[in-house]
Amino acid sequence: MPSRTFRTNSADETVALGRSLARDLTGVVLLIGNLGAGKTTLAKGIVEGRGVDSADAVSSPTFTLIQQYGEGEPVFHIDLYRLDEARQVEALGIDDLFRSGALVILEWAERFPELMPARRTEIRLRAVSEEEREIVVETV
Ligand SMILES: Nc1ncnc2c1ncn2[C@@H]1O[C@H](COP(=O)(O)OP(=O)(O)O)[C@@H](O)[C@H]1O
Ligand SMILES: [Mg+2]
Fold first, then answer.
1. What is the number of alpha carbons within 13 Å of residue 2 lying toward its C-beta?
2. C-alpha angle 30/131/3, rounded to 5°?
3. Whose CB among 13, 81, 87, 131 lies 3.0–4.6 Å from 8's, allowing a Cys bridge?
4. With 0-12 CB in 10 A as exposed, 13-18 as middle and 19+ as buried, what is 127?
């Protein structure tokens, strides 16, 4: 699939983009970008767009590592920022999550490429200015 590129000019616009992308996303989604790029902000919109929770309910899972939103068709939001070793990541049980077919959104997962499935969506976020973000969506 060719990549799609978006520009947003506020956090609200990034949430709205996440809402509109939500229905098209399946499986494993890597959110890739620097601190403050808008990964968690986009995740808010994705969770809301899936209808499993409100954007306000979504916060950075940096300390909890894995957050689950919804029950029937849950969305998992994982932040690997605080983990250094592959075995710590494996111990989270991500393989079972990947196999479950649920939508799994990950931040900082590009640091563990060997643990990620070959088939995945990569969303790259880049701050163009204080308020502008370039967001590239690519399914590989
Ligand atoms: N266009 C934009 N999209 C997303 N966030 C933006 C945008 N403009 C400003 N921001 C701000 O940038 C920060 C992004 O934070 P966050 O989503 O937690 O980033 P990350 O998870 O990538 O570290 C927030 O403070 C948000 O208000
Ligand atoms: Mg974050």
1. 2
2. 35
3. 13
4. middle
0.85 exceeded by the pTM? yes
Q: Report residues whose beta carbon is within 6 angstroms of any ligand 1 atom.
A: 8-11, 13-14, 33, 35-41, 60, 107, 131-133
State the distance from the centre of ligand 1 to the C-alpha of 95, rounded, in angstroms. 29
Token pair, residue 53, equals 């929770």
Q: Which two tokens stand for residue 82?
A: 């605080």
For the chain, domains (ranges, CATH) are: 10-129 (3.40.50.300)
pLDDT tens digits, one per residue of 79-119: 999 999 999 999 999 999 999 999 999 999 999 999 999 99
- Which one of 34, 41, 135 would you pick to mutate in the ligand 1 pocket, going by the greatest count of ligand atoms within 8 A of its CB? 41
